[in-house]
């Protein structure tokens, strides 16, 4: 098998729109991005269902590990187990740790991503045989990127969870789910795991435009929740590393790097950190840019954000490059 001898033979991905290469195209949800101008800078200029103008961070991570330049969506009928041997994504835009989050836009819940992973494992055993499959799974990088939607799409938008939990207890609830998910991966043979922290979510253009009273500054409360969550997640990762023999779990933390880019865009060659390339009307009310949008910038590389919620390909590259050289370096 090509590439099986590599340190990391495959990248296996779970999470939300930050790492969904098009699974949502195959389900009935309004949350899709399989239309122009999405994907206009992707290979062939095609929209794929990635929530960006081009590739997403996990594509660049796969490429940096010398595997392949893009990770396919598990539900995409164009691909099968041959393609998934070297990497696959089960991620679904709009999902979260909390099942109540995936219900908001009828997307794939986090537990269902685990079910797809189990199905993938049995296909893999059928294709490679047990021993080779088990070896591949233990050497593959299992990467999780999820959690922002639990706060922005659920906790701060609907009263249900916020009436049940103060925000610090909601963080604990989500972290409990994250820990159990990793334990389950471990039982299924995963030994290399990266679980991402939260970004400075109060600086997403969608949130800044609602902060008109404060001159569209970042919403500090949301950023503080992200920082607090990340501290708790890191301590859970440390505990799990002690608890589960033979596992190596790391926590890439996008918070500081993304904030540095937002605060000093010109250092990274950006001109705009506040508004999105697509949908730069005054009110960025929509989660997505839409196919009729007249306000799409001509050069996405000058923008940190592509739409009001998602980074441009250039931002995805910088973030992936940073993570590969820091947190993920132990796996290379």
Automatic annotation (TrEMBL):
GO molecular function terms listed in the Swiss-Prot or TrEMBL record = hydrolase activity, acting on ester bonds
Quote the SUPFAM superfamilies the UniProt record gives. SGNH hydrolase
One short Pfam name that applies is Lipase_GDSL
Q: Which family does it belong to?
A: Belongs to the 'GDSL' lipolytic enzyme family.
- What is the official name of this protein in its record? GDSL esterase/lipase
**Organism, per UniProt?**
Hibiscus trionum (Flower of an hour)
């Amino acid at each position: 098998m090509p590439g099986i001898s590599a340190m990391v033979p495959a990248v296996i991905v779970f999470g939300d729109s930050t790492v969904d290469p098009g699974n949502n195209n195959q389900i009935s949800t309004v949350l899709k991005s399989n239309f122009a101008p999405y994907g206009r800078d992707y290979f062939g200029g095609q929209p794929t269902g990635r929530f960006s103008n081009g590739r997403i961070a996990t594509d660049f991570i796969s490429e940096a590990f010398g595997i392949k330049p893009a990770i396919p969506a598990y539900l995409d009928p164009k691909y099968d187990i041959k393609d998934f041997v070297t990497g696959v994504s089960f991620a679904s835009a709009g999902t979260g740790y909390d099942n109540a989050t995936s219900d908001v836009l009828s997307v794939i819940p986090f537990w269902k991503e685990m079910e797809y992973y189990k199905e993938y494992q049995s296909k893999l055993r059928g294709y490679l045989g047990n021993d080779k499959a088990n070896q591949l799974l233990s050497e593959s990088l299992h990467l999780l990127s999820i959690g922002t939607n639990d706060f922005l799409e659920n906790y701060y938008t609907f009263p249900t969870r916020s009436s049940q939990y103060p925000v610090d207890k909601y963080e604990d609830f989500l972290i409990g789910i994250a820990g159990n998910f990793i334990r389950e991966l471990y039982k299924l043979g995963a030994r290399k795991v990266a679980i991402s922290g939260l970004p400075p979510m109060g600086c997403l253009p969608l949130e800044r435009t609602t902060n008109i009273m404060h001159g569209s500054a970042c919403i500090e409360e949301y950023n503080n929740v992200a920082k607090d969550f990340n501290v708790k997640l890191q301590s859970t990762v440390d505990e799990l590393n002690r608890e589960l023999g033979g596992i190596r779990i790391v926590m890439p933390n996008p918070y500081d790097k993304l904030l540095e880019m937002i605060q000093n865009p010109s250092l990274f060659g950006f001109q705009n950190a506040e508004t999105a390339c697509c949908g730069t009307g005054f009110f960025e009310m929509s989660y997505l840019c839409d196919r009729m949008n007249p306000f799409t910038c001509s050069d996405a590389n000058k923008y940190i954000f592509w739409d009001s919620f998602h980074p441009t390909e250039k931002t995805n590259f910088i973030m992936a490059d940073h993570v590969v050289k820091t947190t993920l370096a132990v796996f290379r």
